[in-house]
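Propose amino acids for all 170 sites.
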């Protein structure tokens, strides 16, 4: 049996956050609820999700700065879900790395369809890569279970270190 895909819903409005979370759970997803950027970062530190549904308008830290920060550190797909219908916010969010945009209030069936679509697109690329790296590691690593030649850089991909020593990262 496969593990349910994990989605984090970030919204400062508790009723909206819970409604989206409950709907996604009803459709087989594992869901974590966060009320802002700080709780999102804490949750991601424990488990990197498969997707984030993110409200742009929040009091402490706006969604655009959260997207900017997340995309520097990870490749997790993001769907912006917000009452802000401004074309500028949509364009900036997409240019910062968001994968889709949906205006509030939204039809939950449409959100579910967009979640599934973004997950299909993102998962189609990553296993073609992880599987190849795993096969290469089996051939070149002294101990494939503890890779030293091809290291995983969390949220950044892979790093080739032919000497097996950790290079200095800037």
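Proposal:
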């Amino acid at each position: 049996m496969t593990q349910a895909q994990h989605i984090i819903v970030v919204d400062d409005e508790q009723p909206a956050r819970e409604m989206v979370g409950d709907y996604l759970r009803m459709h087989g997803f594992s869901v974590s609820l966060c009320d802002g950027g700080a709780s999102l970062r804490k949750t991601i530190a424990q488990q990197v999700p498969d997707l984030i549904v993110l409200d742009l308008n929040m009091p402490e830290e706006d969604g655009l700065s959260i997207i900017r920060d997340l995309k520097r550190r990870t490749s997790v797909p993001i769907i912006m879900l917000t009452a802000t219908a401004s074309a500028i916010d949509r364009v900036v969010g997409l240019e910062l790395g968001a994968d889709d945009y949906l205006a509030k209030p939204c039809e939950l069936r449409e959100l579910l369809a967009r979640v599934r679509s973004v997950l299909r697109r993102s998962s189609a690329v990553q296993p073609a890569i992880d599987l190849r790296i795993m096969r290469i590691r089996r051939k070149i690593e002294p101990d494939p279970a503890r890779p030293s030649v091809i290291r995983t850089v969390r949220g950044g991909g892979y790093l080739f270190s032919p000497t097996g020593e950790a290079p200095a990262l800037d």
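The radius of gyration is 18 Å. Helices lie at 14-26, 37-46, 63-73, 87-96, 108-140.
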